């Protein structure tokens, strides 16, 4: 059976077109596959980059952030400790000063009470023994008075008495006459009155 040339050419053209269409489809599928491969590769690359970023962040945190935070915490704790220590020292010092003040106030109060009690007892003694107690004070004061009178004489190398016995007697009498005022000035006791109250004494 023979085909004419026109039918052969048409059939050949259709075959050629079908081939090219099929080839185009195959190329499109290949391109789609290539695109999918590119997408997958890009995703993998992104995942790898993300993991690298996370790794570097962890490394930075371990080598920089955490030590810095630890140092900051350490400095903060030291500062807090020093502040607490300063506050406690100040409290202790304030308490020490308060206790010293209280102790001193108590000591002053006790001394005052003791002095008041001593004066009260002394007043009772004076009241009970009257002139005898006053005379005792005078007698206890006489050594001090004698020392005061003799003090200028201790500085004198030589004493020359001019005149007779009458002049010496007058000087001694004058000196003795000055004793009651001197005793009165030193002790507040009028020796003349006290001696006047004692039987047999003469001022």
UniProtKB/TrEMBL annotation:
GO (cellular component) term, any one: flotillin complex
One BP term from GO: regulation of myoblast differentiation
One Gene Ontology MF term: protease binding
Protein name in UniProt: Flotillin-2
Organism, scientific name: Culex quinquefasciatus (Southern house mosquito)
Sequence similarity: Belongs to the band 7/mec-2 family. Flotillin subfamily.
């Amino acid at each position: 059976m023979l085909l004419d040339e026109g039918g052969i050419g048409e059939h050949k053209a259709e075959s050629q077109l079908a081939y090219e269409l099929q080839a185009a489809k195959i190329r499109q599928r290949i391109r789609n596959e290539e695109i999918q491969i590119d997408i997958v590769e890009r995703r993998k690359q992104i995942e790898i980059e993300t993991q690298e970023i996370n790794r570097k962040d962890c490394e930075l945190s371990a080598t920089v952030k955490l030590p810095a935070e630890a140092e900051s915490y350490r400095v903060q704790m030291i500062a807090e400790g020093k502040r607490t220590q300063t506050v406690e020292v100040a409290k202790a010092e304030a308490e020490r000063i308060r206790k010293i003040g209280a102790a001193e106030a108590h000591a002053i109060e006790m001394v005052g009470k003791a002095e008041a009690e001593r004066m009260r007892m002394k007043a009772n003694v004076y009241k009970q023994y009257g002139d005898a107690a006053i005379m005792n004070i005078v007698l206890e004061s006489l050594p001090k008075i004698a020392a005061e009178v003799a003090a200028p004489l201790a500085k004198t190398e030589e004493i020359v008495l001019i005149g007779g016995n009458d002049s010496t007697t007058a000087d001694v009498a004058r000196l003795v006459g000055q004793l009651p005022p001197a005793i009165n000035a030193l002790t507040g006791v009028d020796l003349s009155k006290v001696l006047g109250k004692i039987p047999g004494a003469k001022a």
